[in-house]
Amino acid sequence: MKSSLPYTLHHSFAPARDEAEVDSLLNNDIYKFLMLDFILAHPEYRDMLVRWKMKVRNRDVKLGNVIPMAALAEQLDATRALGGVSPADISYLRGMLSAGGKPLFREETLKYLTDFKLSEYALSDDGNGGYDLSFEGNWANSMMWEILALKIVNSLYLYHYAKKAKLTPTEWNGVMTRTMGRLFADAEVIRQDPRITFSEFGTRRAASTDIHRQVLEILENELPGQCIGTSNVMLAREFGNNNPRGTNAHELRMIPTAFEDQPENIVSKMYDIDRQWMAHFPELAILLPDTFGTTFYYQNAPKDIIAGHIGTRFDSKDPLVAIPEYVDWLLANGADPATKMGIPSDGLDSRTIREISETCSGMVGKLTYGWGTGLTNNTKGTLPKERETFGPFGSFSVVIKPDSVWRPDRGEWVACVKLSDNPNKAMGSPERIELFKRTFGVAGMERQEVVV
Fold this sequence. Notes:
The chain is α/β, with parallel strands linked by helices. It has helices at about 10, 30-40, 45, 70-80, 85-95, 105-115, 140, 145-165, 170-190, 210-220, 235-240, 250-255, 265-280, 295-300, 305-310, 320-330, 350-360, 375, 430-440; strands at about 50-55, 120-125, 130-140, 200, 225-230, 285, 310-315, 340-345, 365, 370, 400-405, 410-415. α10 links the parallel β4 (about 200) and β5.
């Protein structure tokens, strides 16, 4: 008998239909395209050879216990086979305008995307119940893998977990009903504070593209005027939004600084690339200061960066601490907080957003939020614990970050580093992490549970 229940695996996951989870290069975050435009405009960056690696931060999540390697390879192969961005999609990208009304992307970037080819990947068993997954290529063509591969891993995890656990149609409907019920409850919490606006930033860990699409439709109907867009380029196009929302990422600082060995050169490179970004995208001059520590960044920031940036994204420090710290820094340097933007964006839920809004609204000119996994994959605890026989069910913390760069001057791969305001998110080889700690110090850093 065919199920009449509203949610089925077939309608929730592309692999259940023998389809690719990622069948368009635009099924990606806008910031990847923004950074590509920046990188291609700077010859010193575009051909840097970069190796990326997947890291599952949750020790109790063993991907190999859930996702068959063949299924993962099949999805990665299907995505790598994509032939570049179609003429119709290029036209959509060409029509994106900056806040000042100028084209967002240069024609060179659009031409590059027309002929785009993802770099190769390497997949193997890590011997500990998980997978080693890496990507290698020049920065310009390897960087796109990050979001695309994370989408594949997250959707396959839920899909194959449901299959291995032999969830009945009724049980899967229970999972989805609880998940969507949380979404409607979150919407009600946000609706009660009309000061709150947010962008949906959940592409990388979405439960699936199908579920992501449903979530965005609900948000646009339940919170018109408060949900101001999505970071996903493909879905923004589908929903008639001309400009997806996004800024830049930690890789912008992690990769170039890996080519430096002297502390003073590492520091100057960090500020130089932010200065270059601000010149390239003056209307997107959002700082991401936690890459090597927010407190150091503020205390040593050059005057032109203080004056020229338009806001800060708060990623790994408690926003209730980070926002006042940012305001104090601006005031100490003669900058008016009323002219700046603040964007909390890490591990948010409706409760924390309301708390930030009630405590910090009015501290900066515009306070808005980047809300991700808690919207598009709010599945933790939706399966009874006794049914979690293959490890925890639901969303988990997995990242794909630049692992190392090829240094021709040293003839070896050298680790990229991210210190973060939360040391539990630190990445890099022990010796390089120590070098960066000696360079930037650890002021203002505090260990916190990594939720996403």
